[in-house]
Amino acid sequence: MPSSTVLYNEVSTAAQHQPDFWVLVIPLNPTPNQLDFLNSIEKSYPFKIILFPLAVIEEIIYTFPETKSILIRGLLPNGSEE
């Protein structure tokens, strides 16, 4: 998980664009302390923080196996339209 400083700086940078939400996709499962930190950051900004930890990524791949190449290589499966 990125450090608290990195996360805070990233959210602060995103806030400059006035988003409705900010998505954090990380290939690990955050600890309860890290989740608390994200929740505290979210209270400081007028937008929602959406977290996609490893468990969610694994669930997406299990449910939709064709998404694995998108998540790993950023490539759509053969025969897919962009």
List the helices and strands and how they pair.
Blueprint: H1 4-15, E1 21-25, H2 32-43, E2 48-52, H3 54-63, H4 68-73
Helix pairs in contact: 1-2
Describe the protein in words.
The chain is an alpha+beta fold and about 80 residues long. It has one domain (about 5-75). The protein is built from four helices and two strands. Helix 1 packs parallel to helix 2 (about 30-45). The termini are far apart. The relative contact order is 0.14.
List keywords for this structure.
alpha+beta, two-stranded parallel sheet, 4 helices, 2 strands
Short description:
This protein has 82 residues and is α+β, with helices and mostly antiparallel strands. The chain has four helices and two strands; from the N terminus they run αβαβαα. Strands 1-2 form a two-stranded parallel sheet.
Radius of gyration, CA atoms, in whole angstroms: 15 Å
| Structural classification | alpha+beta
Shape: globular
Question: What portion of residues belong to β-strands?
Answer: 5-15%
Count of folded domains: 1
Helix proportion: 40-55%
Count of DSSP H/I helices? 4
N-to-C SSE string, H for helix and E for strand:
HEHEHH
Low-confidence stretches: none
Q: What topology, given as strand order, has the largest sheet?
A: 1-2
Kindly, what is the distance between the CA atoms of the first and last residues, rounded to a whole number of angstroms?
31 Å
Largest sheet: 2 strands, parallel
Give average pLDDT, whole number. 88
